[in-house]
Amino acid sequence: MMGGDGPNSYAQNSEYQKQLLVSAEDLIHDLIHEHLDTENPTFNNSNSTIRIADFGCSVGPNAFFAVDNIISAVEDKYKSNQNHPEFQVFFNDLIDNDFNTLFRNLPTSRKYFASGSPGSFYGRLFPKATLHFAHCSTALHWLSRIPVEVTEKNSIAWNKGRVHYSGAGKEVKEAYSSQYKEDFETFLSARADELVDGGLMVLVILGFPDGALLCESSIGLTFDMLGSCFQEMAKMGKISEEKVDSFNLPFYYPSPSELKAMIEANGLFNIVRIAKLASPMRAKPDPQILTSHLKAVIGVLVEEHFGNGMMIEELFRLQFEKMVESPVLFDGKLWKEANYFVFLKRNARSGSPQQKFQKSKRKTKSSHIMR
Ligand SMILES: C[S@@+](CC[C@H](N)C(=O)[O-])C[C@H]1O[C@@H](n2cnc3c(N)ncnc32)[C@H](O)[C@@H]1O
C-alpha cells in the first residue's frame, strides 16, 4: 500500500473499502450481541481485558472505524454486566507497512490501548488463546506469494504476457486457487490458535459469485488493460519483456462456496454467517479515481518488481487513457465482483473450561425442559 497521507496514498484512496465496513457495521453489531457469551469464563473475569486484533490494517483510517464499531458492540453487550472490560487493540500488517502514519493518526479519543503487531498474518502473531476478537477486512485476497508455476517458462501454467489469472488458461487459475487454499487454511489455523474458546472473527473478503467469470468483469478487464500497458512499455523499450512476463498480481477472489468448503475443512470454527455485502455505490465512475485507487494499491508492487527506474507515472497514465476509452467504467453489467461478510466463532478446545461450561449450560437447559 502507498503509505503517508498524500494524494496517492492508501489513506486517501480507500473509500471503496470504507464503504464495505459501513455495510458490515450493523451485521457486526447484531451478531456480537447474539454470539458473544459474556458468561463464558474466557470473557467474564474480574479484570477482563478484551483483546482485538485487526489483521491487514494498512495505514488507517478504515482500521479505526472497524475497531470502534467492534468496541461499541461489545460495550453494549456488557451494559448489564458487573464487569466492564478494558480494550487492547493490536494493529497488524506486513513489516513494511507505514505504521508511522497509522500511529500518528490514531484517534485521540480512543477507548483502547493500541499496539502494532508487524508480520504476515499467514502465520502465528499472538500467544495461544489470548485474542477475543479477530477482524480482517479486504486483505485476504492477497496471496502470501505468487504461485511458482505461473512464473516458470517450462510450466504449463506459465502466465506469459498477463499479470493475473483473468483471461488466462485454467492451469493458471488452478495455480492461484491452490495457493489461496493453502494460505486461507494457514490463516484460519493461526487465528484458531490465537483466539480464546468462543472467540469471534469477522472477515470481509473481496470475492466473486459462484459461476461468474473474472475475465468478463470490470476487475478482470482492468487487469487485462494493465497487462497491455506493460506490453506497450516493453515494446517501446522502457522495460524488459522478461520482467513483464514474470510480473503477476498476488490477488485471488474466492467464491462463497469455496469459502464455506475451506472453513468446513479446517473444522476449528463454527460458521455463524456468510453473507453478500451491499456493493459500494459506483454511480459516477471516474477514470481518475479508479486509476488513483489502482496506483495506491499496486504501485508499490510494481516498483518492487521493476526497480526504482520503473516509469510508474507513465504506466498509470497509459492505464488512465485506456480506462477513459473503455466500457469497463460505464457498463454496470461488468461489475461482477461481490464482497462477502464472514462471521465465525472459535469452537471450544476439547477438555477446556469453556467446553465444560458449555456442557453444564446444556445440562441446565435440558433439566429445565424436563421439569
Ligand atoms: C486493501 S488493504 C485493506 C486495509 C484495511 N483493512 C481496510 O479495510 O481499509 C490490504 C492490507 O492487507 C495487508 N496485507 C496483505 N497481505 C498481508 C499479510 N500476509 N499479512 C499482513 N497484512 C497483509 C496489505 O499490506 C494492506 O495493508
From TrEMBL:
Gene3D superfamilies given in the database record: Methyltransferase, alpha-helical capping domain (1.10.1200.270), Vaccinia Virus protein VP39 (3.40.50.150)
Residue ranges of coiled coil: none
Family under the similarity heading: Belongs to the methyltransferase superfamily. Type-7 methyltransferase family.
Protein name, as recorded: S-adenosylmethionine-dependent methyltransferase
Top-rank taxon, per record: Eukaryota
Protein keywords: Magnesium, Metal-binding, Methyltransferase, Transferase
Disordered as annotated region, ranges: 352-371
SUPFAM superfamilies on file: S-adenosyl-L-methionine-dependent methyltransferases
Stretches with biased composition (Basic residues): 358-371
The keyword Oxidoreductase appears for this protein: no
